[in-house]
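Exercise 7b. Backbone tokens:
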């Protein structure tokens, strides 16, 4: 990726992975739930299971270390285990972890992915409704380690475990995205754009100097493509024209600056390449839905006077 743009995006959209539940079980079992989180991970720590959800015709076979990504789904069902008799209904986070691990064949954990509004707009658009990352693939060599470290914190009950679980949850998501990029054909969007070798030089320019008044010809030249070919390829990969991407990148930077700093609106407008504070405010309101000043007060928890 150009520079380390995925890390840039992670910082801007405040991605956090948080544990929502887990269970360890032996024998036939089934777990059903309503999905209320826009983005959710289901990880198979050990054992095997079948995952079903709305939007797919066939269930997904989860093997040890596999992770499924649910994007905007409304329900899920995970079923596994062997033996006679009807499957036992399992409710995540029920019982003492230390006792539930004894004799368990199947262990499953679930994580929700917290995103700010900009993150939801970016990541949910960049991923398919359901993704399956296989731990057995050569591109997922670090996925198993991230999952094991997360699970060790879940069951270890050590000092600082809540903080560690949040951090490992985020690293697990990063490894899932890395592996998913390599294993699957992504839909058009920013994640696919960041992994496209032909667009890398142009994206580097836009990310490095977002305030420069880039022209399509300059970006195409950096990518060693004609203006027409560059525009067509960029739209196919990113799902939007190059200058629309640049504007959205500027708006992400603006939201971070307004959220985390005390920069003046006029200075921010100039830094991001707008001719005036008014032009910046108009573009910001069109993209975000409110003025820069109102956004700053809202995200900081202040009441406008």
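Sequence design result:
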């Amino acid at each position: 990726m150009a520079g380390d743009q995925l890390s840039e995006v992670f910082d801007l959209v405040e991605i956090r992975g948080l544990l929502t539940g887990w269970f360890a079980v032996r024998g036939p079992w089934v777990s059903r739930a309503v999905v209320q989180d826009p983005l959710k991970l289901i990880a198979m720590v050990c054992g095997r299971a079948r995952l079903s959800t709305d939007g797919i015709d066939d269930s997904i076979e989860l093997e040890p270390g596999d992770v499924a990504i649910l994007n905007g789904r409304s329900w899920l069902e995970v079923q596994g285990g062997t033996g006679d008799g009807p499957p036992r209904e399992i409710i995540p986070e029920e019982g003492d972890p230390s006792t539930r691990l004894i004799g368990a064949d199947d262990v499953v954990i679930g994580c929700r992915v917290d995103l700010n509004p900009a993150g939801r707009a970016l990541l949910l658009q960049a991923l398919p409704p359901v993704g399956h990352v296989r731990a057995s693939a050569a591109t997922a060599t670090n996925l198993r380690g991230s999952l094991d470290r997360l699970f060790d914190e879940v069951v270890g009950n050590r000092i600082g475990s809540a903080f560690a679980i949040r951090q490992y949850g985020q690293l697990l998501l990063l490894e899932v995205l890395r592996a998913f990029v390599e294993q699957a054909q992504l839909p058009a969007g920013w994640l696919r754009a960041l992994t496209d070798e032909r667009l890398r030089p142009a994206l580097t320019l836009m990310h490095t100097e977002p305030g420069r008044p880039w022209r399509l010809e300059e970006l195409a030249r950096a990518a060693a493509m004609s203006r027409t070919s560059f525009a067509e390829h960029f739209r196919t990969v990113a799902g939007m024209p190059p200058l629309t991407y640049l504007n959205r990148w500027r708006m992400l930077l603006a939201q971070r600056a307004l959220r985390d700093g005390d920069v003046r609106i006029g200075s921010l407008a100039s830094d991001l390449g707008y001719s005036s504070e008014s032009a910046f405010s108009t573009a910001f309101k069109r993209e975000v839905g409110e003025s820069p000043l109102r956004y700053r007060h809202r995200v900081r928890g202040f009441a406008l006077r």
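Instructor comment: The first strand starts at residue 16 and ends at 25. The CA atoms of residues 12 and 256 lie 6 Å apart.
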